[in-house]
Each structure stands twice: as C-alpha cells, then as structure tokens.
Amino acid sequence: MAAAAADARVFLEVRRRLQSALLILGVPDEGGLPMDVCITPTSLQMKSPGGCTELWLPAGVRLVPSSCRGLRHVAGDGLHLRLQARAEFCTKLISVFNQRSQAQECCTFYCQSCGEIIMRNRKLLRVLPLPHENWGALVDEWCCHPNPFANKPLHPQENDCFTGDCFFLVNLRRDLQQPRPEVAPVETRCLSSENHLKMKPKANTKVICKRCKVMLGETVSSETTKFYMTEIIIQPSERNFPIIPRSQFVQSVIAQCLVELSSARSTFRFTLQGHDGKAYILLWLLNSDTLVIEALESSTSIKKFPLLEDLLKADSSSAWNAVKVLYQPCIKSRNAELASSWESDVSVHSLTLPSATCLELLLILSRSNATLPPSLRCMNSFQVAFLKM
C-alpha cells in the first residue's frame, strides 16, 4: 500500500488477550512524497524516494499481514489499520514488595528519590496484607456476638511489615536510623464539649527524608509509621540501591496497584487524593494487557524535563508493557461535580498518596496524552494515557 509522507511516525498498540493490534502510520501532511509500506510478521518497512526505514518488532511479537482491515486516513494522524497480532513480550516489573522472597530476609529501606537509607538491616519475619478498609463492618455481619476487634487498630510488631493498597506499615525501633517526623503546629477545627468550634493545634505527622526533604509517609502512632510505596524502595541488605528514573518508578507502582485492585475487587475507577485530603486525579482503568510500540525518526522539537527523563531516550523506537487509563484532573476545582459524584460512589476506590506525587503523576499522564496520535487522546470526555509497567 502507498501513503503520502516524507517522515513517518509509527504507533502500534497490541492487545494480548484480544490478539489484535492498531497500527497508525503518522505523516506530517498530505503533500509529501509517496511512500510504500510493507508489513511482515516481524517488521514494518517504509520506502520513499528519500530512502528506506525498517522497524523491527520486539522478540515475541508477530503480526498477521493477511488480516489487515479497516484501512483509512485520519486527518492529523495518518493511516489507521487493524490486524491480528500475537505478543509474548514481557519486561521485568519494578517490584514494590516481593512478599515471598523478602520475608525472613534483612532488608534496607531507601528513599527512592535520592537513595538515602531510611531503615538499615531490618529483618522482616512477617509480611502481611492488610484487610479491606471496610473489614470492620464485615466482621459485624459475620459475628453473632460483639465485634472483638472493635476500636483495635492493626499495628505491626517489631519485625512485621503490613502492606496496604499503596503503603507499608512498619514498626520503628529506636536503634534504627530513621527519618524524624517534623512537628509543627497546624490550626485545625474541632468540636469542643460545649458544641462550639475551637481552634486546636495538631502535630504535623509527615515523615520527611533528611537528605532531599521529600515526604515519605506519615506517623500513625508513637511506634508505627506509614511509608508510601511511591516513595520507598525496599531491597535485601546485600544489594545496592537501584537507580530507577523517578517517572518510571511512579508509573510502575501506580500501574501495579491499579491492576491488583481491579483483579481483587473488580474495581476499575479510582480517585487519587493527596495526604491533604484533596482529590487530584480521577482514573478509569481500561485494560492492562497492552504492549505499546512506537518509533519517531525526529524528536528534536521535544523539550526534556527531569521528571520525564526515561520517556525521551536517544533511540528512535521503544516498546513497553502498559496499562491504558482514562483520566480527568481535579486540581483548581476542575471537574468538581464529577469528582463529587465519584467520591459518593461505592464502586470507586480511593488511593491516598503524597500531594507532590499526585502532581507528578498528573504531569506524567499529561505527557503521555500529548505524545499519542491526536485521534487517540480523548474518549467520552476523558483524556487517554498509558502508564508503563
């Protein structure tokens, strides 16, 4: 087949479960030089009078050229077509916590942003998942006697680590090197015994990295600290600190949380709120079996941001596993009505992260959306993005 283009951008979205793929060959305009496109099971070849460009697919990904259908030209995008595809491509995920391998081992907790050691040589004898947030109400339904666990919070012992949806609960010992929570008076409203609102000072419970001043978590009690998964890396003590680009780490952790929650609870809509209680992002998980392959011959016009350093590499092609999401920002009172309806919907799950991380994720989503072909950027009034796994 032939197309009019001098410098084509290739975008390939493969769905493993459906064994299908959407191929988009982007062209700068309709007045370019003629270009012949040849599709083989393992490669894409584009020929023009100016030369020939060949894109090889990752190992384990194969297309079925004879299944090509739905060929059409979309203004602003280029050529669209669908075809059958088989993908076995898989990358090693950034493990937020491997319960089997790290239980019984000595572990070191690092600040993901700067590598500062938060806790050194902590031997974890038990790594246990916390129950559902509404577990107390379920116990009331199961028990024929008063709830024995009423008003008894679950706190880890010295060698325990409890895992929540997006956080760890650990017990801090005095002899460990640990971040000191900053304590500052914060004016909060509370209801007094005389039924009048009074201003009462409240301690700031934020746990902050001593080196880079990033918020790592919050103190839950005098001995228990909650660390957010997006801020901490846990490694066996014999291993060195792994240097992972910040945006890659945040994407992987959030993507894994969404996939695990959707599988365990059949929940596909999420509100991401900051530690200040404000909603920042509404997320709707579409699928988690996507492989994205794209190639762009020239990216000199794209400005680099430190947060997105792993998204803009020197090579012209890349492939990654991803989850596809719809999102809406809620900052500056945007989508307030929709956010309010989601917050009151029992089928929507809420995730709490540091406010700065919520803003980082919003920037990552916006950057992902901006790099998609124009026709794929919106769906049902939501914006579309991919999060790398």
Q: Describe it for me?
A:
The chain has 389 residues and is mainly beta. The protein has 3 domains: 79 residues, Immunoglobulin-like, CATH 2.60.40; 112 residues, no CATH class; 123 residues, no CATH class. 15% of the residues lie in helices and 44% in strands. It contains 5 helices and 25 strands. The strands form 5 sheets. Strands 2, 3, 7, 8, 20, 21, 22, 23, 24 and 25 form a 10-stranded mixed beta sheet that branches. Strands 11-12-13-18-17-16 form a 6-stranded mixed beta sheet. A 4-stranded antiparallel beta sheet has the order 1-4-5-6, with no helix packed on it. A hairpin with a 3-residue loop joins strand 12 and strand 13. The protein is elongated. The two termini are 34 Å apart.
